[in-house]
Write the structure tokens for this entry.
Amino acid sequence: MELTTLWFVIIAVLWTGYLVLEGFDFGVGMLLPIVGRSADAKERDRNRRLVINTIGPVWDGNEVWLITAGGATFAAFPEWYASLFSGFYLPLLLILLALIVRGVAFEYRGKVSDPGWARWWDRAIVVGSWLPAILWGVAFANLVRGVDLDGQHDYVGGFWALLNPFALLGGLTTLAVFLTHGAVFLGLKSTGVVRERALRLAKPFSVATLVVAGAWAVWAQVAYGTGWTWAAVAVAAVALLGVVGAAWREREGWAFTFSAIAIVAAVVLIFGSMYPDVMPATDPANSLTVTNASSTHYTLVIMTWVAVILTPVVLLYQGWTYWVFRKRLTASSIPDPIGLSLRRSDRPAAPVPAAEGDGIPRP
Amino acid sequence: MPDVLDLARWQFAITTVYHFIFVPLTIGLGPIVAIMQTAWVVTKKDRWLRLTKFFGKLFLINFAIGVVTGIVQEFQFGMTWSAYSRFVGDVFGAPLAMEALAAFFVESTFLGLWIFGWDKLNKKVHLAMIWLVAISTNLSAFFILAANSWMQHPVGVTYNPDTGRAEMNSIGDVLGNSTLWAAFPHTVTASFLTAGTVVTGIAAWWMVRLARTRKTDDLEKAREVYRPAVRLGVLVMVVAGAGVIYSGDVQGQLMFQQQPMKMASAEALCEPAPDGAAFSILSIGNLNNDCASVTRVISIPGATSFLADRSFTAPIKSVPELQAEYEQKFGATDADGNPINYSPNLALTYWSFRLMIGWAAFSLALAVFAYWATRKGRVSDSRWLSRLGLVSLATPFLACSFGWIFTEAGRQPWVVAPNPTGLDDVRLLTERGVSTNVSSGLVLTSMIAFTVVYGVLAVVWYRLMHRYTIEGAPDEVHDDSPEARTPDDADRPLSFAY
């Protein structure tokens, strides 16, 4: 295999890792207010914390797959990196802002015990999950469809051209896939009311995903695919059907496996239909291909060694993390909040002198 | 409407300086927390676990913003600097990708294991987690600085006129860049100095505060918990401070060879100095990058020559001499026919260089005072120590910021500075690096959006750091590790949850 093709595959693998892993993070974040609801304020907070803690130890590691995909694109296909990121400026900006507030929200939400404080960070988590869940689909669908590149490979189509019907359906597709993926993940990682609600939602979600994602995949295949990518469409279809079947039988392990397979198949379809282009242009003469977008052979050789040695190691220790935190969470596994009050003077008068922190958790 | 170039530069400056408020504390505090936890595992003394939890909280509050603002950095080159990305991608992308694969994955994954793993991992395994985080944040710095050092001093590349870009021919040269091996120790020791100052400042403030209540319990806590933290912080500051000075000196000497214009500007050297250049203590002039306006008020004769070349009479080229040299080599006008000023903004480089050194001096003062005040087992109740501790909390951050402002602004007008000791055809003016297909309205929008979001987060970050600092170290800590537990509490709550 040509090194340029190998790097095209490696980047597809990195995106697969990102979408499979952060896909359920997004789903969990989007479902936070729905699955974590309760009329009782205290119980609501506990439910929401349970939801957040299903991804607490892993979300940050999951997000690094994105950074790596970005860095690897820069190193292996600088032209692609330059055209893609400058061309999709506004969607990327929104994604970045979403990821910023969402990431900080996970870490900061529990640092202060105050309903208003938690409410703001919950909003950040929800908005920060919905936006990228839609926008990644819009971006990838535009890649498949081809965009308006000039002779310098610069995107000149403007923002509104990115919101074409095919791309919008792509946005709905990632949204539906991630909602389902997140719901079955919650089912897999929790017990009690959160699990019940998540699995109840997974049923209609899986059907909607089958319809929306199925329609998009067939459209993509018919309009932009090549012969062999029918295989990816077929795998995706079987997997999506599998999600429906497993979700309705409440077999969340199988449902999660199937939805992960569906995401893998979708990435294969997306990258397979683009190849040998990395960024097809409306005028094929201006398309960026694995050849004209790539780094030199020397750089690719170096980066291949780095990727071939390190990627399995990353998979190994990330896999270990999931093993360490394999236990399902239940309401009783969530400890009392340890956040501080907003102001130190809010503390009840304690027998200890005011100058000394007592370290006792306060509600 | 300002043009895209100015906006893109402002956006990069804002997001980068902001990102680097959090980074040095993360780089330096990680290892200090790891040392505290190691002390706990080895000595089994509660005080070290209390300090681990206390400073660990501050570490995490800080880490969160460092991480999320780092994502912007990785994407911004493509978004606003696509012409630059095309020119350098073959060599510049490699260290960034290596950073993600070799370092960032490690720190993000193992940080999760450290935060949530107190009751899941054996004590020693859990300890290894924080060490992996600490080591990988420092490894991150290495790769990022490899990329930056290449912009200051491009090596291991050739210019390919067919593709119009820089192409790497030796990764060994890129990672062995002499600029990198001076910038990396300088940045890391500066980060340790920052974290050492924060630990010392906070611990000294607490020690004094408790000592002044004159209550037995408080005195005990000041002696048992905060005094050891002060001593540890001072030790870190002294070692790191010596490293900062030494590595800074090495870096300065290199810069006189590799980026003479940067150093001439930093010294406001507007007159030829064939018999040795003086070090300016105070120079005044206007802000318009105009050599004619510079008046040198106080200077130390020969000192700049000594810093550059270890001789008080070594000739140093002045800004106008270098300008003439550059015009001859690289042309007097750019592609659009505008004259090129090859010197960076004089006032900015001159003052940022001095402010970097000046703000760092506060840490030195705190180290000396805190060491003396806690000598031979003493617990200090000096108000002056506590005040100096508080003031010093901000100063290393300012020093770090001005250091980077100097490094980056001093490289202008280049984004990739030509290498005077190697192939100088790998070079790029900043104005040629900006994206040509992005409108100024779009960049203005993103600049405002980042500034607003970052501003709000800065306020939240400050409030949390402040709140957790005045809460102090916990009085009671539990050993949550699996080996310290009875087997029958399988349904116990997690030791930590968000």
Observations:
- Strands of chain A lie at 277-279, 288-289.
- Residues 36 and 48 of chain A are 4 Å apart (CA to CA).
- Residues 346-363 of chain A have pLDDT under 50 and may be disordered.
